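[step 3/7] fold_predict: job queued, chain A
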Amino acid sequence: MTTIKESSRDRFPELYVPASSYTNPYARTRDVPMRVLCLGMPRYVSSKLEIRSGYTAVCDIPAIMFSKELIEAYPDAKVILTLRNIDSWHDSMMKSIVPISRAPILNVLETFDPSLFRRFNPMWRAVWSAFCQEQEFKDVGKRVFVEQHETVRRLVPEGRLLEYQVGEGWARLCDFLEIPVPDFKFPVTNESAAFRDRFNVLVGLAIRRSVLRILPILGAVVAIGAGVLTYSRSLGRT
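[step 4/7] structure written:
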């Protein structure tokens, strides 16, 4: 019988990487150039790739916030501007990233999970604040959407840019990238439900780490308390 843990590990294997294997991002250096810059807005790309040694493509927040710098730094990279109806995109953001970014559990985990959330939360708050131009997303989200599309179109020379609807599938994308069409179905993994599932797994793992971290401390406190109580009772009998 497949367990929930096994299913989660199979769906999100990257979330199960041991914290001890995390590397210092400031110590990373690039040894290969970026070949693909996917600079459309978040919540409608099929996956995320980090800017770090070994990767040749990047997308989503925070990369799109440095579109101008990335375009200039990698003049030979091909640029993909993913397209989506602005209203459905805004609605998706309001149902996924916005409420999760305000979840009280994040503040709790920042205290008790130093391996991830103590690093992640301050970074995310800074990134999200900058993305929303230090305003509420519901008020500025659509404006940011339009500005991002205009910026990419203005900066990328003709021939380097593909404006692409994710629902189109592989053909135009692979032709633009000059790579063969894969023999499997085009993945769609960034839907709201999948996003929430991923977040719940991440939080569950963090809670587990936090409990394991706290238990020895609680055990020590209980042991000390029991010792003090026993000693106090022994004094009362003398």
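[step 5/7] annotate
Residues 1-6, 44-53 have pLDDT under 50 and may be disordered.
The first strand starts at residue 36 and ends at 38.
exit 0
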